[in-house]
Amino acid sequence: MKRFLSLLLTVIMVIPMLSAVAMAEEAPMVIDFYDDAANYHGIQTGWFAKVVKDRFNIELNIIAPQVAGESIYATRAADGNLGDVLIMDKSKFVNCIEAGLVKDISDRVLEIENLKPFHQQIKAYNASLNKGEGVYYGIPAEMVNTSAVGVTGEMIYSSPQVRWDLYKAVGSPDVKDLDGLLDLLAKIHEIHPANENGDPAYPISLWPDWDNNDNMSGPANVVQLTTWYGDKFKGAAILKPDNTFVKLYDKDSGYYKITQFLNKAYQMGLVDPESFEQDWNAFVGKLQNGQVDLIWYSWQQGFWNSQDRMDNGTAFQVIPVEDAMFYADADNFFGSSRVWGIGSKVEGEKYEKILEFLNWYASPEGLTFQHCGIEGLNYIVGEDGKYIPYKDNALMDNLPVPEEYGGGGYQDGNNAINQWLCGSICLNPNTGETYDQKYWASYIAKNMTEMKKEWQARFDAQDPVDWMKKNNKIVISPNCVANLATDTNDIELLRNEINKALCKYTWQMFAAESDDDFEALWNKMVDEMDGLGYDQLFDYDCQKWQVEVDAKIAAVAQ
Amino acid sequence: MQKAERRIDYKKRRSYIEFLYILPFLVLVALFSYFPLYGWIYAFHDYRPPFPITNETFVGFKWFATIVNNPVRLKNVLRVLRNTFAMSGISLFFSWFPMVFAVFLNEIKCKPFRKFVQTVTTLPNFISWVLVFAFAFTLFGTNGAVNSVLQEIGIISKPISFLKSTDHLWFKMWLWLTWKNAGWAAIMYLAAITGIDEQMIEAAKVDGATRMQIIWNITIPSLLPTYFVIVMLNLANFLSNGMEQYYVFQNAFNQDYIEVLDLYVYNMATSGTGMYPLSTAISILKSLVSVVLLFITNTASKLIRGEGFI
Predict the structure, then answer these.
(1) Alpha helices, DSSP H only, in chain B?
(2) Structural domain count, chain B
(3) Which residues of chain A lie closer than 8 angstroms to B267, CB-CB?
(4) How do residues A528-541 score in pLDDT, each as one tens digit?
(5) pTM reported for the whole predicted model
(6) Where are the alpha helices (DSSP H) in A362-440?
(7) A–B: how many Cβ contacts below 8 A?
(8) Staple partner for B43: which of A444, B168, B189, B280, CB 3.0–4.6 Å?
(9) Which domains are assigned to chain A?
(10) Chain B: residue nearest A211 by CA?
(11) Which domain holds residue B12?
C-alpha cells in the first residue's frame, strides 16, 4: 500500500513537470483581438483555429463588444490595453490614438508584402489622421482595388424586390412611382393573402431592431428606403444628390415621402399588423415562411432565394420604380468604416507574429479561407484551375469540415474575426477571378435561369444595376477618406433624445388611421424635435459630414 | 483588585476576537457596497472613453442640471416619473396580495393539490422576461391565439392589437408582474405561517373560532410584522422598479406610459459611450431618494407601530 502511494505521488508530481516542459516548447501564443466586427467572444475554435495554429502557432482570443457589451471598451481602455490587434470603427480609432492605445507602426506597415498593392489606400488613410508625414497607425479594413467611383455587382444595397412569380401573376405591370408600387402590392395581396400553409401573408412587414443605427436617425425601415430617391442620411441630416444638406423633417425630403408611403400602405391594409409588435427574428421567420411580399435589402434575398426557387421562378427579384433615383455607395476602394491597428503594448516577438499573421491574412491563401471557405467543401477546383461553387449550404447547415481541418462544423469553426483586410471583390491571382463567388464564371453559368432570362427580356437590361445605369437612375457616391469628428457627450445626449422622439412618432405615423392623424403626428414630432434642440444637432451634423462631402467631390474630380 | 483587572483584560481580548468574526463581512460590505460609490465621481466629469478622467474633464453639477434645463426634456422626465410612481404605486397598493395568497394556500387541506398550486405559481418566477414576452406575443399578438379564437367564434371581425394598446396599461403590467412573482413572494409568508404558535390556533379552535376568524385574528396579525418589513423595503426601492419587464413590452405606441425611470436611463444610455455621466447622475439621485424614503418609512413605522425596522 505504502509503495503504491509513493508511486502514485511520484507520478502526480512528475506529470506536471513533464507537461510544463512539453508546454514550454509548444504553447501557442495568444493574440487578443479587440474586434468591433466580431459576433463571437472567446478563443477561436474549430477549423479556422487549426488553420492559424498550424501556420503561426498562435491562438486568437476574440474580444467582442457586440457580445460582451460596450462597457468592455471603457474598462479595457481604462486599463491602458485594449488588445494586441485592434479592429474598430474609424471614429473610435482616432480617439484611441489620442489616448495612447494604438501602436505607431510606421516602421513596418509598408513592408507587409501582401498589402503592397494597397499602399495608396493605406497612405491616404494615415495622411488623414494628421499625425505627420510618414507616420502610420492603421490599415483600412476591406480595401479593394477596383475603383472609388464605380459599383461592382448586379444589385445595389437597397432597392424594391418582389417575388417574380407573384409579379408575373398580376401581369408584370410597369411601376411608375411609389403609388404604382402600392397598386402592384395591393394586386399581389389580393392573389396571395396567405402562404401555402394558410398563414396570413402581407406585402410589407416591419421591425424596429436597427432604428437609429449606423449613424442614421430614425427607423431603419425609413432611412433605407429614402435612398431610393437619392436621399442619404448623415446623422440627423439628409444629404441630397446635389451634395446639399436638408433637415430630415423638410417635407420635400425623402423622410416625409417614405413615411407617408408606409402609412398609405398601412391604410390600404398592406402592412402586417404585427409589424408594431414583432422584432427582426419574427420578421425573418415570416420571410422564410413566404409571408412577406416586398423586401428592400439586397442581402435579404439570402433568406428566401434558394437554387430551387431561382429555377422555378419564385425568387425575389428587383422591380425597378421608374421615378426613383437610387443611391449607391461606390466600391470600398479606400476601405470600409472600420480600421485595423496594433495595440500600444505589443512588443518584440508578438509584434513579429502579428505582422506575419496580417501578411498571411491579406495573402491569396488567407483571403481564400476568408471569402471562399474550404476547398472540397465550399468550392472545388475545375480543370481550368477556376473555382466551382460546391456545397452552398455549408454555413447554413453547419456541415462537417474535411478531416485534415480537424473536424467539427463549418459554421462553428468559421473565422470569428469577421472582418477582412481586403474585400471579396479583389482578384485572386490563382484563378484570375474574384474571391466572391457571385462573379465566378461557373456561378454565373449556373444562375442563368429561366427567371433571369425573363427578367432581362422584361426590363431590357442585364441586371438591376445595368438597368439603373442605362436609364440614368443611379447616383453613385464615391468612396473617399474622411476623418469625421466624434460626438461630444452633449451632442450624444441631444442625438439620443431626438432619435428617440423621431422613432416614437414615426412608428405612430406608420399606423395613423387617417391622413389628418398623420399630419397631426408629424407636427407634434417636429415640435418636440425643435424643442429638444434639433437645429443645433443639424448644424453640427452638416459641419461634421461636410468633410466627407468635400472629399467625395475631390475624389470625383480626380 | 487584580482579579477584576484580569477579568477586564480577558473581556477585552474576547471582544477583539469576536470582532474578528465579523471582520470578513465588514470587508465584504466595504468592498462591494462602499467602494463602488467611488464610481459616483463619473457624474461630475465629462467622461468619455477611452480618455481617462482628469482635472480638465471636471464639470461639477452640469449633468444634474442637464436633467432640468430643457423644457421638453423636463417634460419627458416628469412623464417618466409619473409612470414610475404609478406602477410602483399599484404594486404597493396590491402588496397584500402575496400574503393573502399565502394564507389561502395554507388553508388548502389536500396536500398534493396545495403543492401543485404552489409549484405552478412559483415556476414563472424563473422564466426570464424575454420569454414572458415571447409567450405574450404568441398569445396576445395580432395574429396570436386569443385573436384567432375570438375571430373564429365571431366575437370580433378585426384583430385587436393588445400589445400596442395603452388601455389599462399600468394595471396590465401589474398583472404580468403578479403572474410572475406572486408565488415566489408568497414563500416568505408561508415560512412565517409555519412559525405561528400552534397552541394559539388550538386554543382558538377550542373556543369555537371559525376558520375565517382564525385567519383574521391569528394568522394575519402574526404575518403583519413580516408584511411591514417587506413593504418598507419595497418603498425604499420605489423609484427602481426594474427595466426588463418594461423593456420587452415597450413599443412606439405605449412608450409614453410604460417608460419608467430605469428604462429611461437605459434607453438614453445604451447608444454610444458618452452617457455614463448622465446615467450616473440619475442613479445618484435615485440612491438619495431611496435613503430618504427609507428613513421616512422607518420613522413612520416607529410612530405608528412603536418599532422601527432598522
Answers:
(1) 2-29, 62-66, 71-93, 97-107, 111-122, 129-140, 145-152, 169-194, 198-206, 211-214, 220-236, 244-249, 255-258, 261-269, 276-305
(2) 1
(3) 496, 500
(4) 999 999 999 999 99
(5) 0.86
(6) 364-367
(7) 108
(8) B280
(9) 27-141+335-422 (3.40.190.10), 158-331+444-557 (3.40.190.10)
(10) B271
(11) 1-39
